[in-house]
Structure formats: C-alpha cells, structure tokens
Amino acid sequence: MTSPSPARTIAVLTSGGDAPGMNAAVRAVVRTALARGQRVFAIREGYEGAVVGGDRIVPMTWSSVGGILHLGGTAIGTARSERFRSRDGRLAAARHLLQAGIDSLVVIGGDGSLSGAAVLRQEWPSLVEELVASGQVEREAAASALPLSIVGLVGSIDNDMSGTDITIGADTALHRITEAIDAIASTAASHQRTFVIEVMGRHCGYLALMGAIATGASMVLIPESPPDVDDWEGLMAERLRSGRQAGRRDSIVIVAEGARDRQGNPISAEHVRQALRERLNEDVRVTILGHVQRGGAPSAFDRIMGSLVGYAAVGELLASPPGSEPQLIGMKDNRVTRQPLVQCVERTRQVAELVNTGDYAGALALRGTGFESALRTLRTIVRALPHPPGAGQKRFRFAIMHGGGPAPGMNTAVRAALRLLLDRGHHVLGVRNAVRGLVEGDVFEMGWMSVNGWASRGGAELGTNRRQAGDRELYQIARQIEEQKLDGLMMIGGWSGYAAVAKLVAERERFPAFDLPIVCLPASIDNNLPGSELAVGSDTALNNIVGAVDKIKTTAVASQRCFVVEVMGRRCGYLALLSAFATGAERVYMHEDGVTLADLQRDLERLKQRFRHGKRLGLLIRNEEANPFYTTPFLCALFEQEGGGLFDVRQAILGHLQQGGDPTAFDRILATRLAALSVDYLVTRAEQERSGAAAFVGIREGKLKVTPFAELAELMDLENQRPREQWWRKLAPVVELLAVPGPEAG
Ligand code: ATP
C-alpha cells in the first residue's frame, strides 16, 4: 500500500489511567503503520517517557506488539506526568521527539491526556524555535522536520469524553461491574441484605447507570441526575422497604463516585449506608469496587474498538497534510468518526462544569438522548411495583414468547418488556416453550415479581425452541389468541421466531385472529436477523468464544501448534470474523466467502512459511457451516499431513458453551432498550386499533429503528438465513492486515 503524503515517523503513547483495550489500539497503530511503510515508535510511560527520552522511546516492529491483544492495562506503560504540565517539560519532550525524527503522535488517554496533546500541538512551533535558539536542536534539522501531527484516541473506563459514544475500556469496566454486582446480588438475596456499591465515574454516571440497568439494582445515584427531593434518603429507604414487601430479596444501591444531591453536596457510599441503616434498622454493607473495574482481560468489544480506532488513527495521519488540526478518532453510531480534538476536550469540560454548577438538565442534554432514555427506562423497571392503571384506561392483553435457539439476554428482555407494560396498566401473558406453547395454550399471566432476578440470568426461562407451526396447528393458535383475548404479541427470538411470525402474518386473510399487532425483538447469538446490526446474545457469545480462545492459546505456548477453532453462527460469519478480530486469528473461514482448495493450499503455504520463521502459534477460525466438505476435522487432517512436521494441528469445536452463561452487560442493555421500543410499538398500535401491524425492532447505525415486517423478504437472504447486507463484512481486510504481516512489515 502506498500513501500520497510524505513518509512519517509515528509515535504512540498511552497516558493517564490505564484502560483495557489500550493494547489493541497500540497494536493496531504499530501494525498499520508498518503495513503502510511508515516508521513507528512507542513512547513508554506516557508523556513522562517523552520528557525523559532515551530508552523510553523505542522503535517498534511487527512482533513487538505480538501477544498483547488479550492483556489488560497497557504494555507500553502509562503515567501521570507532572513535568509535562510545565513548559519546560514539554520543551524536553519536543527535543526528544525531534531527535528521534518523530513527526506524528498518537495519544491514547482520557481528557487530561488529550488536553496535554492539544497544548503540545499548539505550542509546537514556539518549542521548536526555542530549541533552535538555545542550540539544543540544529536549525537545519528543525527546518527539515515535518510540523507535528497529532491524533487522539480515548482510552478511559469512565466513558466521559465528548466526541465518541464509547471510550476504550468502558465496556470491559461494565463487565467487571456486572460480574461483581451479580456475585453480590446472590449473597444479598440469600440473607435479604442491603448492599451499597460504589463504582467509578467522577463526573459521569455512565458506568453506574448502565451497571444498574444491567443488574437490576434497586436504585442508582449519579452526578448528572441527583434525586429530585431534599429528603432523598427517606425516599430511598421507602423504595427499598416496598421492594422487600413486594418480595424482593436483595436490595442494591449503586453510587457513582461523583454522585451528589440537588444542592450539589457529594453523596458518598458511606453516607448512603448510614442513612439506610438508620431508616431500615438493619445492617447495610458497602462495597467499593475500585480498581477491579480497570483490571482484567479486555472484552471483545474493547479489543475490536481499540483495533479499529488505532487503524483509523494511522489512516488519518497519512490522509491529512503534516501539522493539520489534531483530530479525535472515536465511535459514533457504531461507526468510526473523526472530530477536532480541541472541541471534544472543550465540550467534555463543559459537561463537568454544568454538573459542578448544578445545571443538571444541561449536563444530561449534552450526554445525549441515549443516556436520558436509559435513565427513564431504568426508573420504571426498578420500581417496587407498577403504577396503578389509570381510571377508565383500556387495559390490553399482550403475550410475550420466544422462538429459536436460546440467546443470553432473552430473560432480560422479557423482564424489561413485562415491567414496562405492567407499569402502563396492561396485562402480560407469558407463553411457555415457544410456538408449542402457543398451540397448546401453555400461557400464564405474569406479575411484576415473576421476573425478579431475570435481568442477569442466562438461558430463557419461558422456554424456547426452533419448532414451527404446522398447517393444522394454525387453527389452534388462532383459537388460543381468541380465547386469551390477546391484543398484541411480542416475539423475542431468533430466525425461527421470525419465521413463525412470518407465517402468522402471511395467513392473516385466512385467520383474522392473526391480525393483531406483532413485534419481533432480535435475540440470537448468530446475529443473523434483519433490521438490526446487532442481536441480543451475540455479544455474550462473542465474549464466550474470545475467553475460550484466550485459554486455548495458552496451552500452545510451549509447542509449535496450530489451532482450528470452530464457532457457531449457522451460515452467518459474524461470530467467526469478530472473534478472529478480537483474538488476532490469522484466517477466518466463512460461508459468505466460501472456501476453495486453492484457498487452503495458500493458507497451508503461508502457515509453513511463518512457522519456519519462528512462529509458535497458529490460529484459524472456521464458521460451522463455512463449507460442507471442508469440515474442521478435514482442515486439521490436511494441515497436519501437509505441514511437513513444522507444527501440530489441533481442533477445538466450541459448541454450546457459546450460547451459555449470563448475558454480558452490553446484551442486557441492548435487550432493555429494544424491549422499551417494542413496548412502545405494541401499545401504540393496539391503541390505534391498527390492523396489519407487524414489525421487527433493531439497532442500526446506533439508532433504535422499527422496520415493517413486509420488508423481511427484501432484507433477508432467505436461502442462507442471513441479512443481505452485513455491515461487519467490511472489517475483514482490517482483521487480516492486523494479524498477518505483509512483506513491508519487516
Ligand atoms: P483518566 O481519564 O484515567 O483520568 P486522563 O488522561 O484524564 O486519564 P490525567 O491525569 O488528567 O488523566 O492526564 C494525564 C496526563 O496528561 C497528566 O499527568 C499530564 O502529563 C498530561 N496533561 C493533562 N492535562 C494537561 C494540560 N492541561 N497540559 C499539559 N499536560 C496535561
């Protein structure tokens, strides 16, 4: 690959607090730079390394970032540098950068680190002038150097930066928070005990709010939205007490570090504990999660996001003239974006300032509509009991059911939908065992507490399977809908669930009973559903695969070994490609691309060549239906037999562990958001008595969307049961570029 701009010497550094996923970003910066023929350095220990110089500025090769993708923290070190805050410190840093020939800097850190980058960029000409005037740098050397270019990437668990929807590390922090709260919830429930849990977030309640949605906590206190009464302690105690009376066994209050009351006084976890102890007259325990939230292996999302923004950072440097205005590379609406860095830093400061001055509405508005609607949904689903129905209000009867394979997050979606519907005064019926339950009338009325604890529970409590209704069973379904007097149906499921709904919709003329509002909510680990870029369950499956591959890789450390890992997905390669991205696999076999003998021969030659040059571990990921003949055992046998004794080959068919376990925080939050949208759809259509209403909900380009069911055939490749458009396929070249060294990489 050639670039039109002059060759660059790029340096990457991590600064401020460490965040899981920083390694993925560093790896991507280094490897993309090398693949594009640029020189690249790492500056160890953040800005402090630039101030000190010498061996803190290290030339990087392809292999110097090998084996770090799955590690937490940052392999190149980070620091908070007091010296860099002074002009003298920055002068020393500028001298060291110039001496190493560095003209482009990728800074990975929080808002402080990115402010530092902006200051350095702004002062750069005067720093160079001063270095020349004092004889520390030759005038010719300074004149021939390119002006400094800077790109910022946001590595911070708090998710408090303007200019990106999500920061590198926030998703992993949510993993840690949900794991910890799930664990505490089980002991709290055993003893009927109350826990107060403090999570990070000095100015930003993101982790606390999303942690509360994901775990079903009883209450959350965040900086942007203080309780709206003075006696919030009394209100909180009352809420917990009525929760207990309603049958709740665990009471959990989540407090963000920066929480405050409406006068602006800080609310500490200890204060909450004392207030509850006095009012509830019981022992209340505090857990401060602290640095656990930063630690551990990065989640699949953080590895992928870190890689994507790192890759884009180098692209940005090479596409813009030297010395251009610094840009921040972030993610908005599930796409990589660039925005002027200085503005992002300023807007971030502004939110903190609004919180400090008590303008909470202003702060919430700047956080964006997603944050606000998450807060609204949370306020409903954490209630001890629903609001009573309005006088004279029409109370509809809605049924909730599943279809398809189990997907982690199905229970979370049922819980949220049920509570939102009950809170609006409607009745909710649960259908057991998917289509069979609808045929047999295995239906029961669900109450508020019937879903207690479901927010975090894997599997599908209502039961799910792939069965479809036969022609004769359609009569029975129609009868059940009439007997149960259903006003709407919510299908939370995978492709079999969508297919079952498609059949009802197609038969509406013959069976008028089917003409009730129906909504489908995508829940499938395969992520092969129309109208949504992501399905509930796929993030959990991806993390299950990534965790398993991390372990498998460690077994090969001592030997020359190549693994062929088979993952689920039916004919959709989402899990295969994304798990390859997150684990650094060098080859992905997917049904979408097909597999030919020529491909396999090329892969074999490439493996042999790399093992001959010192490679110790090979990793290939194969989608379960990539090719019916070139199966996983076949690939293993072929590579083993033809590998010339350079390596062993082992297969790992991951199987059902991929569907198992509790849903990730992301899947729980997605399930909750989609459930809220589905509820809105059903209730509005039922109120309008709209016939012919059927739709599927989803998330596209970061926005919640409703798509009419009539578009199903257009959107789906029905033969292969996957969407015609698969947004993630364009990631394939990046996956390969970061995993396989080209001849340029050296
Ligand atoms: P976190 O989100 O984890 O707190 P951060 O990047 O905001 O990360 P800070 O401690 O605020 O962490 O900043 C990290 C480093 O960036 C500082 O130690 C300092 O070296 C540099 N820095 C921050 N602000 C400035 C500034 N205004 N001018 C120069 N350098 C700065």
Q: Care to count the β-strands? A: 24
User: Helix fraction?
Assistant: 40-55%
Beta-strand share of residues: 15-25%
Hetero groups = adenosine-5'-triphosphate
Q: Which structural class do the helices and strands define?
A: alpha/beta
Strand order, largest beta sheet: 3-2-1-4-5-10-11
| Terminal residue distance | 14 Å
Mean pLDDT: 93
Rg, nearest Å: 27 Å
Number of helices: 24
Written account of the structure:
This protein is of the alpha/beta class. It is built from 24 helices and 24 strands. The protein has a seven-stranded mixed beta sheet, sandwiched between helices. The two termini are 14 Å apart. Bound molecules: adenosine-5'-triphosphate.
Topology of helices and strands:
Blueprint: E1 9-14, H1 22-35, E2 39-43, H2 46-52, E3 57-59, H3 87-99, E4 104-109, H4 111-133, H5 139-144, E5 149-154, H6 170-191, E6 194-199, H7 206-215, E7 219-221, H8 232-245, E8 251-256, H9 269-280, E9 284-288, H10 300-319, E10 327-332, E11 335-340, H11 341-356, H12 360-367, H13 369-381, E12 397-403, H14 410-423, E13 427-431, H15 434-440, E14 443-445, H16 471-483, E15 488-493, H17 495-506, E16 518-522, H18 538-555, E17 561-567, H19 574-583, E18 587-589, H20 597-612, E19 617-623, H21 632-642, E20 648-653, H22 665-687, E21 694-700, E22 703-708, H23 712-715, E23 716-717, E24 722-723, H24 732-739
Parallel strand pairs: 1-2, 1-4, 4-5, 5-10, 6-8, 6-9, 7-8, 12-13, 12-15, 15-16, 16-21, 17-19, 17-20, 18-19
Antiparallel strand pairs: 2-3, 10-11, 13-14, 21-22, 23-24
